[in-house]
Amino acid sequence: MKNSLLMSAAMVVGLSATASANEALQGLIDDPKQWAIQTGDYENTRYSELDQITKDNVGDLQVAWTFSTGVLRGHEGSPLVIGDMMYVHTPFPNIVYALNLAEDGKIMWKYEPKQDPNVIPVMCCDTVYRGTAYADDTIFLHQADTTLVALDAKTGEVKWSVVNGDPSIGETNTATVLPVKDKVIVGISGGEFGIRGHVTAYDMKTGERVWRAYSMGPDSDTLMDPENTTHLGKPVGAESGTNTWEGDQWKIGGGSTWGWYSYDAELDLFYYGTGNPSTWNPAQRPGDNRWSMTIMARNPDTGVAKWLYQMTPHDEWDYDGVNEMILTDQEVDGKMRKLLTHPDRNGLAYTMDRETGELLVAEKFDPEVNWTTGVDMDPDSDTYGRPAVVAAYSTEQNGEDVNSTGICPAALGTKDQQPSAYSPKTGLFYIPTNHVCMDYEPFRVSYTAGQPYVGATLAMYPAPGSHGGMGNFIAWDNIEGKIKWSIPEQFSVWSGALATAGDVVFYGTLEGYLKAIDASTGDELYRFKTPSGVIGNVMTYEHAGKQYIGILSGIGGWAGIGLAAGLADPNAGLGAVGGYAALSDYTALGGQLTVFALPN
Amino acid sequence: MLTNRRLLSAGFVGLLAFVAAPGLAETLPSRDDPAIAAAYEEGGRYFTEDDIPTFNVAEDGTVGWPTFSGFRRYHAECHVCHGPDGEGSTYAPALKTSALTMDYYDFIGVVAEGRQKVNASQNSVMPSFGTNPNVMCYLDDIYVYLKARGTEAVARGRPAKKEPKSDLIREDEDACMG
């Protein structure tokens, strides 16, 4: 049995055995029967060409099989499918299962790393892990404690392992890794612990470190070329990663790198965003705090930055810039452009030219966003590319020890990491969003290595004067900068979306539903309640001629913290507490993969 | 300075561990319970008749400064695991209940030293905050705030009215934070 599996796995890879790892992986990504990378493809579109399940028959969908991961707590990311093998990961302790789809999901191997549990409380918001990566017949597991392990995809044996960060100073990992050519590119978490964010490339064969690019620090650390690295078309100049900080504050400057990465093979650039500056008390870190809150375009071989764009200079609200960067080729004003679309935590969705870093569109993707009146789009202006901050919602201008109220969005953003999808058939982006506002009071904190470095008190609540729910699932036009339609949801939508050639879009909800909607109209076509809340990403694959839809259930993550007990409504009278539904009334902890298919 | 004192009291906890062993499904003490009710005030802080820090809420809803301070510090340091307003999360207990069911010294000890429950069904780890002034300098405040939440003497959300920060509290805070 095992042999036949090995043969079929070998055949899948064997198609391009002589090519480089990148081309082999690209071949798998191009085959819609596989789900070879967490993001669906290098472009992060989360779009599948599979069209057996359509908007006309998706209503007949049934559960085909299920798998318990054996772990509770938040399940983000999705399984991978390579040939007959499915690779399922879990939150801490970060188990990996290899299931044989040709044998009803028999477990071919299981890998469970030994990790010091002291990493658990250093993880900001639950012990989530957004999944393994595959390339070169190897599964790449990036553990919570930042150990990066290369596992033989056939046997689960360790090929090499390397330690990327130091949990004792608050460095942890929650993200997947990006395999590009002969390298594996990895990020780091820990913005709430005063780390200095970085991106690091390791040699895919040996695990040897090739380069590291910090989010802030001297040019030799940030891998910026003062002449040739540009910010909105202009050279960044010398020491741009230190000269907007006071003294040595950049050393604990945050700018973590835990989001989704994309890659353009033709331009040979990879894209990612950096997180919030530390602390959450803006008065304690004067300046723009570059390069936190920044979209980065870097060369994967050298790490050198080609262009960047700081979306939220001197953050005052914890609007991490780490969300997905979706790469599309679309027509703008009659001309085909290579675009990058990024729906940010700060409530603005940015459309950029991904070759040059030119800013094309920056518009609110939730009408309730109020901290800014918009971005200065005039290239000749002194404040070009900067958001105009509304004084009433500026936690900096209101000052320390003052409670700024009614700020939209809340710190968890109009969206967080939950990745969007893009359908080239409709030209629309499908974005899972939060519809939550906050009060924010910053105050002085002192830094202790490995301890939380926050410095603000937050209260969150559903966007006032809206539909009362805490989320929306929207269709977004990235050229017009407009919401096409919006589906109100009772809770934040914390699940990654999937769009398919069958004109169906899928997403999960915190109550535990898998939902299928019409890609053009947003009309609901199907729903099924899985055992626990969904914060995982919907994926699809084909096996033995049949299309399947897979989703991980397992409530947790930041959503499991903020929403578990429900949110209080500050505007309600005394005694109205609990007026908004608590997530705990709808779902409980779990850890399960549910796989759907049409009936035979 | 205060940190040292805290660490000392954490040291006692081991000895006192037998004290608090709450039964299952017990009824929680009410705000009039002598273990909860404020018996006297000293420099803006309130204490029970056993000299344990506690909250005070005036008839018009004004809370003592420590309760308000505890609200702020709780939501900076604790809420990312324990949820808003002491209500708990999907993986960490509701501290508004713990503040009532746990002995004061046990509570202090767990915060200072941390605690692990790691087994087949649980991966629950409380870190040690003993070296963190943002927590330790405000631990009594956090404790009394959670007690106020546990008895519902203070509703969810931000307390609307508070007493001013006393000079004594200000001096102690400056000394502790350095």
UniProtKB/TrEMBL annotation, chain B:
Entry annotated with the keyword Lipoprotein: no
Q: Which residues form the Cytochrome c domain?
A: 59-150
Concerning Gene3D superfamilies, the annotation shows: Cytochrome c-like domain (1.10.760.10)
Q: Which GO-annotated molecular functions does the record name?
A: electron transfer activity; heme binding; metal ion binding
Region of interest: Disordered: 156-178
Q: What is the residue range of the signal peptide feature?
A: 1-25
Here the segments flagged for biased composition (Basic and acidic residues) are 160-169
Q: Which domain of life is it from?
A: Bacteria
Alphabetically sorted, this entry's keywords are: Heme, Iron, Metal-binding, Signal
Q: What is this protein called?
A: C-type cytochrome, methanol metabolism-related
Q: What is the lineage of its organism?
A: Bacteria, Pseudomonadati, Pseudomonadota, Alphaproteobacteria, Rhodobacterales
